[in-house]
């Protein structure tokens, strides 16, 4: 196509710059059509042929026009199947419109012919009646005249019969013609609806992705990237992110991850998501999930999802909430593919990126509530779990949760804290007194109550004894120790804890006969408190 246009253009004998000025086009617009980077529009081809006819003082042949049209259709079939389909449907519409007009003219001709034949039949009927009258009046003229009139009568009858048969045939043909016209009109209307639907779909897709021109196929971009230098590859990726649809970006980024071009893939995803509204980021993720196939490397999809989550974490709080809502809405109905984004993890990463934000603690509860409101309670719990695992009760987030009085979040906080202490073992028992002291210090007593009850349920009496002794040695003993003992008594573990402490934390035997044991003053006080059960 580009070669044929270039040969025709060269016959003008002028430069592309001169032609662009003459035709009021941008030079890059003319250049892209002539070098094949874009498929030339029909208006550009018609204008070029008009200039050639004016220059040569002769008309361009129909064969040349038809060849250019065929080349353009072939190019469109490769570069933009949607536009090719649309223009093909428009051609079909024009074809059936011409057929309707032809059939309408044929109908009118048949109706006129029918009227004339009916008039002739009526005239012949009158003639026959007159002939019969003449035959009766002239019967006396003899057998010769009788035979003559009889033969003429037969001839008229035969002609009338022929006309009646022709009339019947014309009626059938007229009925068929009317039916064909109706079918052609219905087909034309159907094609117009299909063309409008395709046109609307293409327009909406390009408007949603903010794409206003036809790009080269993704396969050609892949071939270019394999051969390109580093700087050229960066430029190609940046231009692709700015100008292509989310589906194209998903295809190319997955391909780049698969051929170990991870840096370029990450740059493509980052540029696309940063330069577009957040809904385009959701479209990108949904296209990646749609393209996911069984038995493919899970690492490619994980890497891409991780890159998307990084970009969303850099966006504003409003963009984060919109991303969560749109992604949840897209997965509200059953889908054949599994989601690759964890909304709780995305929200957690957002807090990591915005840890210097003064109002981040209040945003924490707002985002957790938003996840619940859009139908993602598990994501909300995951967010709470990750933040608390990192910061604990004594953090700003822990304080916000404790003061909120929200039992569900407080239970998650307590469970994560105790699970973390239990995993790390006895060496981490010294952390509990401070956490309990902070919980006791909050205005809402729910945190302290749940923490102490959970402590008794999570550890055996031996570990509970060691935790109690650690609290006795800590700077929080005045605040914490009594509360722990009260919890042990309330939960029914005080007796076992007292026995363990009495056995393991003695200073020695002070009376060999009675085997009376000696204890330090703090331990003796503990044993007395535990005995008050």
Please, could you describe this protein's structure?
With 533 residues, this protein is mainly α. Among the domains are: 2-79; 112-208. It contains 25 helices and 2 strands. A two-stranded antiparallel ribbon has the order 1-2. A hairpin with a 4-residue loop joins strand 1 and strand 2. The longest helix has 66 residues, at 143-208. Residues 509-515 have low confidence and may be disordered.
In brief:
With 533 residues, the chain is mainly alpha-helical. Helix content is 78%, strand content 1%. Strand 1 (508-511) and strand 2 (516-518) form a beta hairpin.
**DSSP E strands, number:** 2
Biggest pleated-sheet summary: 2 strands, antiparallel
* Order of helical and strand elements: HHHHHHHHHHHHHHHHHHHHHHHHEEH
Give the number of helices.
Answer: 25
Overall pLDDT confidence: 80
What spatial form do the alpha-carbon principal axes imply? elongated
Using only C-alpha atoms, the radius of gyration works out to 45 Å
Helical content (DSSP H or I, runs of 4+): over 70%
Strand order of the largest sheet: 1-2
Structural class: mainly alpha
Low-pLDDT runs of 5+ residues are: 509-515
Question: How far is the N terminus from the C terminus?
Answer: 96 Å
Tell me what portion of residues adopts beta-strand conformation. under 5%
């Amino acid at each position: 196509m580009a070669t044929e246009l270039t040969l025709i253009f060269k016959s003008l004998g002028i430069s592309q710059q001169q032609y662009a000025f003459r035709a009021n086009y941008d030079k890059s617009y003319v250049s892209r059509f002539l070098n094949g980077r874009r498929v030339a529009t029909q208006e550009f081809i018609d204008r070029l042929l008009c200039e050639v006819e004016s220059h040569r003082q002769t008309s361009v042949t129909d064969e040349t026009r038809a060849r250019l049209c065929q080349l353009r259709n072939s190019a469109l079939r490769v570069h933009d199947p949607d536009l090719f389909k649309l223009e093909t449907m428009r051609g079909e519409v024009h074809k059936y419109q011409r057929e309707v007009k032809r059939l309408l003219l044929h109908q009118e001709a048949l109706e006129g012919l029918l009227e004339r034949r009916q008039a002739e039949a009526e005239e012949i009927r009158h003639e026959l009646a007159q002939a019969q009258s003449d035959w009766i009046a002239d019967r006396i003229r003899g057998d010769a005249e009788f035979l003559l009139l009889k033969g003429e009568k037969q001839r008229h009858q035969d002609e009338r019969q022929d006309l009646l048969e022709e009339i019947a045939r014309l009626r059938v043909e007229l009925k068929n013609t009317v039916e064909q016209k109706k079918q052609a009109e219905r087909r034309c209307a159907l094609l117009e609806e299909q063309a409008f639907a395709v046109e609307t779909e293409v327009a909406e897709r390009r408007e949603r992705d903010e794409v206003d021109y036809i790009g080269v196929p993704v396969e050609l971009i892949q071939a270019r990237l394999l051969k390109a230098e580093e700087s050229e590859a960066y430029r190609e990726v940046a231009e692709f992110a700015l100008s292509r649809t989310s589906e194209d970006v998903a295809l190319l980024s997955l391909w780049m991850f698969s051929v170990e071009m991870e840096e370029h893939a990450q740059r493509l995803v980052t540029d696309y998501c940063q330069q577009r509204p957040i809904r385009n980021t959701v479209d990108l993720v949904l296209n990646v999930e749609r393209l996911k196939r069984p038995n493919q490397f899970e690492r490619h999809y994980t890497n891409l999802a991780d890159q998307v989550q990084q970009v969303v974490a850099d966006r504003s709080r409003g963009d984060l909430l919109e991303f969560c809502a749109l992604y949840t809405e897209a997965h509200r109905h059953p889908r054949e593919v599994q989601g690759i984004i964890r909304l709780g993890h995305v929200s957690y990463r957002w807090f990591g990126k915005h840890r210097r934000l003064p109002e981040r603690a209040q945003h924490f509860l707002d985002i957790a509530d938003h996840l619940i409101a859009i139908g993602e309670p598990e994501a909300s719990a995951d967010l709470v779990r990750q933040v608390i695992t990192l910061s604990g009760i004594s953090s700003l987030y822990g304080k916000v949760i404790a003061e909120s009085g929200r039992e569900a979040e407080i239970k998650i906080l307590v469970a994560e804290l105790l699970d973390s202490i239990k995993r790390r073992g006895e060496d981490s028992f010294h952390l509990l007194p401070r956490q309990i002291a902070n919980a006791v210090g909050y205005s809402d007593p729910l945190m302290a109550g749940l923490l102490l009850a959970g402590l008794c349920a999570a550890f055996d009496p031996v570990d509970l004894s060691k935790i109690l002794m650690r609290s006795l040695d800590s700077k929080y003993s005045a605040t914490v120790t009594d509360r722990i003992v009260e919890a042990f008594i309330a939960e029914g573990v005080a007796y076992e804890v007292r026995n363990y402490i009495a056995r393991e934390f003695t200073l020695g035997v002070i009376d060999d006969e009675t085997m009376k044991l000696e204890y330090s003053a703090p331990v003796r006080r503990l044993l007395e408190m535990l005995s008050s059960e």
